[in-house]
Amino acid sequence: MHVNRKPRRRHSEEFKARVMAACSVPGASVAAVAQSFGVNDNLVHQWRRGRGFSVDSRVATAPVLTTACAPDFVALAMPATLPAPAELPPAPAAPVHVEKIQLELKRGTLAVSVAWPLSAAADCAAWLRELLR
User: Who's near 105: CB < 8 A, 6+ residues apart?
Assistant: First the structure.
């Protein structure tokens, strides 16, 4: 039994070049770029490896502006001047004892020592899980 399938789409070299240019933007995610152009990210990864895409300098240098990958600029108000030293709060008289998680990690020649506040133990666990992946 033969199942009717959609015909395979053929993308122009110009389209592929626009997708590749969008992928080369710093911080761009291949999956997000592929989704914004309506193609599968596995296909874009193949094009990046050189399968099905020939680099044409005339097309590859065309600028591409996509709003999906570009972060928005956020302007923050800064104080005009710093407070005078007399206006600063007084320093604590005695050091405050804070319970902490102490981690010492060694991998090859790299050694890292981290002190994490006990009040943020969940954040420490998430960071450690990502680090050890």
Answer: 111, 112, 113, 114, 131
| CA 114/CA 132 separation, integer angstroms | 14
- SS3 letters for the chain? CCCCCCCCCCCCHHHHHHHHHHHCCCCCCHHHHHHHHCCCHHHHHHHHCCCCCCCCHHHHCCCCCCCCCCCCCCCCCCCCCCCCHHHCCCCCCCCCCCCEEEEEEEECCEEEEEEEEHHHHHHHHHHHHHHCC
What pLDDT digit, counting tens, does each position of 4-24 carry? 777 778 888 888 888 888 888
104 pairs with which residues across the strands?
Answer: 113
Per-residue model confidence as pLDDT tens digits over 60-115: 444 444 545 555 666 777 767 766 666 666 666 766 677 888 888 887 787 888 88
- Measured between alpha carbons, how far is 68 from 36 in angstroms, rounded to an integer? 7
* Rounded Cα gap, residues 122 and 58, in angstroms: 51
